[in-house]
Design brief:
The complex is a heterodimer of chains A (about 260) and B (about 350). With about 260 residues, chain A is α/β, with parallel strands linked by helices. Helix content of chain A is about 35%, strand content about 25%. In chain A, helix 3 (about 95-100) packs parallel to helix 5 (about 140-155) and helix 4 crosses helix 5. The longest helix of chain A has 18 residues, at about 170-190. Chain B has helices at about 10-30, 35-45, 60-95, 105-120, 125-150, 160-185, 190-195, 205-225, 225-230, 235-240, 245-265, 275-285, 290-315, 320-340. The longest helix of chain B has about 35 residues, at about 60-95. Classes of the chains: A alpha/beta (about 260), B mainly alpha (about 350).
């Protein structure tokens, strides 16, 4: 059986710095893998390499087929990438922005067809954005904007969704809302999801598997309950945490080392 | 609410075409010889075989209309349309509202080429042929130099590096141009009048020489109008949507440069059109390149024909340099537009 998405010994260098070194990942179809790790571990770089938009050494395979054998357009039909801070031109309408997601399906010099408009319409409807269709992006809130960006990725109709910190700009309620949405889309459309995540408790609750990167290398790869331990978090994040396991879920709580001020 | 992209709104499309038609008619009608718009239209129809009509004009008026005014108007339209559409392409490709067709050194390169041609052309030789060629060569060389320099310095990843390379090449070529000019100070006047730009020497030959370049360049840019919107999402996102960003940027820069260089070669340096026309459309119509690119072509053509008509009339029989007219009337117009439209986010 081949994996939906596989990286073999992927290394990325920037100048003389090794950002990723020999990373192996294998994601099965329909799986949600969260890439975690401290700042500068190479999480975003790994997503970019998987999406094929930066140069790397090693191999990336999509459905068992080396990605280098695909054209840029073919890649874009299989993998959609949602960057952490997507460029959202203020004056574009939601409809226009989501339609740009159809680019890999539209002939290079052609304009979108009825099928493209319908696909964009479906994506907008599925993310509950119908009433925003004609609004310009500059008038939307952070939570609405995040959903619009997801709608654009969904309109791309790729089977693999790469999300870079999908919840970093959102409040607690919107974080849950967006992650539930991703999970629902994943189940309904059998999407394969790879996301980087800062919040370890959320990562542990939503992802099937966690991949801990540190210093450009995979340190641990396994189920959330195995990866998230006080020892591992202390060793790689330098953080003092309390890990609570409850009914199959894991919660990682930061803990202050000593309380000096008592009022 | 329908899910679709705003292309060219039909009303704006037809309004712009009417503007161009009016400008062309005005451009043909203005001049010392009195030829009314009605007579011009009748003469145009007479030139179209299918109507089987004879022109109401005398043969002298016919010659003035078709050998003097028409090539001038046609040339102004071609150059204006080219500069405006090239400006819209540059602004899209560099995601920079301040980009204009001269961004990567076209003006400085063409200036150096023209100055060399004027200063060192063998006495008695025909600068009329040499000058456009030299200007075209200089312009192309400058942009090629800027592109190579920018790329080797990592400009493929950041457009800022590319723009910086353009500035450096332009400064270098301007220095060389000033040096040549100082060596041959007797040519100063001729060089200066070329730099100010104008259509005083327009003839059908220059129209036919530059038309193919401009047609090809405009065609390539028009085909990329949707891709320019994708590029507005930034290099990485455009790449993740399947666009070859570097290749697309190169193709568009080459197309816009070839057309601009051809325009500059026959008309000198006409500023302002490439920046004011696309921005006017952006503010009035839509921020999407799908509207800006085609409308810039048509409106730019009309704008420059109108500017040239003014340049011929204000101090008639003397002519104002057209660059003076475009900036003198363009700047206040744009200032008013900026104040009255609320869509300030560029």
């Amino acid at each position: 059986m081949s994996y939906a998405l596989e990286a073999r010994a992927v290394s990325v260098t920037a100048g003389r710095h090794l950002i990723l070194s020999g990373v192996d990942v294998a994601v099965t179809q329909g799986e949600w893998v969260a890439i975690i790790g401290p700042n500068g571990a190479g999480k975003t770089t790994l997503l970019r390499a998987l999406a094929g938009i930066i140069a790397f050494a090693g191999q990336v395979l999509i459905d068992g087929r080396p990605a280098v054998m695909s054209t840029r357009r073919e890649m874009a039909r299989q993998i959609a990438l949602v960057p952490q801070r997507p460029e959202t031109p203020h004056e574009l309408t939601v409809a226009e922005y989501v339609l740009l997601g159809r680019t890999p399906h539209i002939g290079y010099f052609a304009t979108e067809t009825r099928a493209d408009r319908l696909a964009a319409e479906r994506a907008i409807a599925r993310l509950g954005l119908r009433q925003f269709t004609a609004r310009v992006l500059g008038s939307l809130s952070g939570g609405e904007l995040q959903r619009v960006v997801l709608a654009r990725a969904l309109a791309q109709e790729a089977s693999i969704l790469l999300l870079d910190e999908p919840t970093s700009a959102l409040d607690l309620g919107h974080q849950q809302q967006v992650l539930e949405l991703v999970d629902r889309l994943r189940r309904e459309s059998k999407l394969t999801v790879v996301s980087t995540m800062h919040d370890l408790s959320l990562a542990g609750q939503y992802a099937d598997r966690l991949l801990l990167l540190d210093g450009g290398k995979v340190v641990v790869d396994g189920a959330p309950t195995d990866v998230l331990s006080e020892g591992i978090v202390a060793a790689h994040y330098g953080a003092d945490v309390q890990v609570i396991k409850d009914n199959g879920s894991v919660f990682v709580l930061p803990r202050r080392k000593e309380v000096r001020w008592v009022r | 609410m329908a899910v679709r992209s705003r292309g060219v709104p039909p009303l704006w499309g037809s309004a712009t075409l009417v503007f161009l038609a009016g400008a062309l008619l005005l451009g043909l009608a203005i001049g010392p010889a009195q030829i009314g718009p009605g007579a011009i239209i009748a003469s145009v129809l007479a030139h179209l075989e299918m109507f089987h009509r004879s022109s109401p004009l005398s043969s002298v008026d016919e010659a003035i209309l078709w050998q003097v005014r028409a090539p001038r108007v046609a040339l102004a339209a071609l150059v204006g349309g080219m500069l405006a559409i090239a400006g819209s392409a540059y602004q899209g490709v560099f995601r920079n509202p301040l980009a204009d067709p001269y961004l990567l050194g076209v003006a400085a390169g063409a200036g150096l080429g023209a100055t060399l041609a004027i200063a060192y052309a063998a006495a008695g030789s025909n600068t009329g042929v040499l000058l456009p060629l030299a200007a075209f060569g200089g312009a192309s060389l400058a942009v090629a130099g800027a592109y190579v320099l920018g790329r080797s310095a990592g400009g493929a990843r950041s457009t800022t590096t590319l723009i910086l390379a353009g500035v450096i090449v332009a400064l270098f070529m301007t220095a060389a141009q000033t040096f040549v000019q100082q060596q041959r100070s007797e040519t100063l006047r001729e060089v200066y009048s070329w730099i100010l730009g104008g259509f005083g020497t327009a003839d059908w030959r220059s129209v036919t020489v530059i038309a193919p370049y401009i047609a090809l360049s405009c065609g390539v840019i028009l085909l990329h109008r949707r891709i320019l919107d994708v590029l507005s999402l930034g290099d990485e996102e455009a790449a993740s949507l399947g666009v070859h960003v570097r290749r697309t940027r190169l193709v568009l820069v080459i197309a816009a440069t070839a057309g601009t260089a051809a325009a500059v070669a026959v008309s000198g340096l006409i500023g302002f059109v490439g920046i004011i026309v696309p921005h006017t459309i952006r503010l009035l119509v839509s921020p999407s390149s799908r509207a800006i690119v085609p409308l810039s072509l048509v409106a730019g053509a009309g704008f420059l024909v109108l500017a040239d008509a003014l340049a011929r009339t204000i101090l008639s029989p003397a002519e104002l340099p057209i660059g003076v007219v475009t900036a003198f009337f363009g700047a206040p117009f744009f200032a008013i537009l900026l104040r009255t439209t609320r869509r300030m986010a560029l």
